From TrEMBL:
Residues that coordinate or bind 5-hydroxyisourate: T60, D61, F172, R189, V241, Q242, N268
A cellular component annotation (GO) from this entry: peroxisome
Active site: K13, T60, H270
Subcellular location: Peroxisome
Biological role: Catalyzes the oxidation of uric acid to 5-hydroxyisourate, which is further processed to form (S)-allantoin.
Record-listed E.C. numbers: 1.7.3.3
Binding site for O2: T60, N268
Molecular function, one GO term: urate oxidase activity
Family: Belongs to the uricase family.
Protein name: Uricase
Residues annotated to bind urate: T60, D61, F172, R189, V241, Q242, N268
Organism: Linderina pennispora
InterPro entries for this protein: Uricase
Amino acid sequence: MESSIIKSQAYGKDRVRVVRVVRHADGWQEVADYSVCCLLSGAQFESSYTKGDNKLVVATDSQKNTVYYLAKTLPAEKVMVPEVFATEIAKFMVNKYAHVTSCQVKIITKPWERMKFDNRSHPHSFYREGKETRWTEAVVTKTNPPSNASLVADVTSGFYDLEVLKTTNSSFTDFWRDELATLPDMPDRMLSTKVLCQWKVVSKDIDTIQALPFDTIYNGAKRNTLDAFANDPRAWVHASVQTTLYIMADRILNEFAAVDDVYYALPNIHIFPFDLSKFGLKNLASDAEVYMPIADPSGFITATISRPATKL
Ligand SMILES: O=c1[nH]c(=O)c2[nH]c(=O)[nH]c2[nH]1
């Protein structure tokens, strides 16, 4: 047992729930609602695992306190953008504690939509529209531990549980045929998925990363996802979830130079026409109007898409 070695370790506080309100003089208010996970790493923590030595252990309780402390003391704009808040927390940890060489902060946001009445946005009332959830994970690392000399940050951001459905303009035909293939060609089908999309910005110094337009990238990723799903003619011509995924990611990479790669996970939530021929009713192929959603199993299409390596 005692000859075992630690291959990696990280510890901290998960599910730190914090709500930050920004109150403007004219009565307009903003809200950010977060669940934060903060994890510290460093070789000197090994003795807390192997020798029962807590001397260098920054209590997870203290890490939780730090999240609230920073939510109050940072300028509001550094708290309201989750990517910036995550990098601020991680930067604070690696700067304050010499023996912390890397800090990983994940923030899940609870999206509150501002209420609108007669097309006018309400100054301080919000509602939850869908299940779609934005999150981010920032990792800040000392380039030359244990010195504080320089820090690099990697940020991965995304959203999950964006549910979409279209009732036509999707197909799946001309696939591999053998004795195990029973699925007929589907030249026109329903398509439904629950989108998980994430994008990565790698190895930047903190100031460069914090200057990126994270809200714009998030809104653009969502817009491109929906637009490619509903409108991109290539998704219709090539016709598979795989093609739709590639088009979505390609559009995000083309629009946002700061994004290094894009990952999607797209379950193909099957909704098949219900065979009513026993009742003398035509409800298959082009006659389909009544469908049965299939809870399980679903297809599951994933890929990470990036730019081609630049030639030197
Ligand atoms: O878009 C699809 N891609 C597949 O790989 C596949 N496989 C399947 O059964 N249906 C679908 N649909």
